UniProtKB/TrEMBL annotation:
Gene3D superfamilies the UniProt entry points to: 3.40.630.30
Protein name, UniProt field: GNAT family N-acetyltransferase
Domain of life assignment: Bacteria
InterPro entries, per the entry: Acyl_CoA_acyltransferase, Bact_Acetyltransf, GNAT_dom
Pfam families listed in its UniProt record: Acetyltransf_10 (PF13673)
Presence of keyword Transferase: yes
Keyword hit for Transferase: yes
Domain N-acetyltransferase: 5-144
Coiled-coil parts of chain: none
SUPFAM superfamilies reported in the protein's UniProt record: Acyl-CoA N-acyltransferases (Nat)
CDD domains the UniProt entry points to: NAT_SF
Keyword annotations from UniProtKB, A to Z: Acyltransferase, Transferase
Length: 145
């Protein structure tokens, strides 16, 4: 059974997620997740999907600014990609933050997955820019209560 959880910073689950983030999001780009990438994470919230005891997807949210939250470092385990887990994670996080009074979610999407985020209700804003060596675009989604 798939379940949605917030996990504490520096917990064993958080440490497990670091391994997934590095393997799935960074190593394919020829870089490693660094201490610089995690330096501010104590002030950020960490969310995952679990299938039993296995963490299969996750993302991080930055502290809110003007009822907007930036999402970052979303990943889905290789065995679960294409099975709707990314969409499920975004749905769960949207519902969570809507209950908390957040009005908008923002993220930097890799251009290669822009259409995925559009299917999840996100709209592109601005120009394409380079982040971690690859093209990205800012995307936002309005939340409703």
């Amino acid at each position: 059974m798939i379940s949605f959880h917030e996990i504490p910073h520096l917990s064993p689950a958080w440490r497990e997620v670091l391994i997934h983030r590095d393997r799935i999001s960074r190593r394919p780009l020829g870089i490693n997740l660094s201490d610089e990438d995690t330096v501010n994470e104590s002030s950020q919230r960490h969310f995952v999907l679990r299938d039993g005891s296995h963490i299969i997807a996750g993302l991080i949210s930055c502290p809110p600014e003007n009822k907007t939250i930036k999402l970052r470092q979303m990943w889905v385990h290789e065995d679960q990609q294409g099975n709707g887990m990314g969409s499920r994670l975004l749905t769960e996080i949207s519902e969570q933050f809507a209950r908390e009074g957040i009005e908008r979610l923002r993220l930097h999407a890799r251009v290669s997955v822009r259409s995925f985020y559009e299917k999840c209700g996100y709209l592109a804003e601005g120009r394409i820019f380079t982040e971690v060596g690859i093209p990205h675009i800012i995307m936002e989604r309005q939340l409703t209560r």
